[in-house]
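Q: You know discrete backbone vocabularies at least as well as I do. I have my own habits and do not want them to colour yours. No explanation is needed for now; the record alone will do.
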Amino acid sequence: MPRIKKLLVQKIMSDKEMSLREGTWFTEEELVHPIIRSNIDVYYLDESGQEKLLLKYRKNQISDELCDIGWKSYKDLAKPSRGRGASAGPIHQEGQYFGKRSLVHTKKWSTGYLKPEGKLLKEELDLLSLEDVKSRATDKGVKVKEDDTKDIIIYNIVKASNGVSSMKVNNQVASNPIGFYEESKNFAKLPCRLTHFTRVNYDKYHEGLPFIQQIDRCFKKLIPDAYQKQLCKANEKCHLKIPKTCFSTITINRNFRTALHKDAGDYREGFGNLTVIERGKYQGGYTIFPQFGIAVDVRNNDYLAMDVHQWHSNTEIYETEEDKKYNESIPKAYKDNIEVGTIGIDKLYTRLTFVCYLRENLINCPDKIDPRFLTKSGHSKIK
């Protein structure tokens, strides 16, 4: 077998510079190395001068047969999400989704918005004079500071009237986890569990496991030490791991160009495991590590093990005119309502990415969990 190429890279941007660009886009022009399209192991030097593995990339590791199984099982499970944080990118205020809404307190990749009744109230208050708005605030029990502007007072009235969304949201993208998740302590207050979409698509989840198990075998073969650590950790909660793997969870993305981020909640001593299933033709979508000026062109059948705790993102995914003509000639894979505004679902090509990992906090889950949260469900939610 030919010897695998090894590349040692250096940081071209400081940690502070990277942190300041969290949630923003990077392009191919910011690379200093040629885009990786062949087998390679990439290392970098840490603060002590020790070599650390950044990624291992291998072409054609997952057969067409297994990719077909993955496609048939999981293609519909990348559901719309407004909770992907920095990875969803700067709020697209003119886009299909947010263009229909009145946004408030928009910062970088998150925003609040007015509820329909809040929007109507704001429109009513906008027509009033400043003095009349202050009077309405007094009637509502809203405190008004001496230097408050009319807009601030109106916002506080609308908020006091329960007209503002109770949570901040991100750009709506097609991205969804399947498999297991730890306890949620937000408003939902869910226990350790199989995710909702896994339970209601339980048969498809199981039908696709041979595809996921091949990703696991790639990890075991390429990085055996890290694999063994992750497997031992996963086995501490065997009832919360994907069968015959060291993974607990898979995030499925559809045509999702991620902005700069680090993955959160993954096992720190493990690796993210990424593969792609494609339909149609497109360009770009490179998995980029901007701090090292390097990117990988992960395509159908390929496998990438990557340190997801380093800054990473994707370059733009786009079509050439030739790509568009080809994509118009193939059967449509989805029947989407593009009016909902999920970014990327209007495209005729499909780039499904699968990121397999172990949720670190599952170790804190109890050994006994209500079986209703671990098995197939025919309902929209457990009551």
Residues 28 and 315 are 7 Å apart (CA to CA). The domain at 5-90+172-373 is CATH 3.60.130.30 (Double-stranded beta-helix). The mean pLDDT is 94.
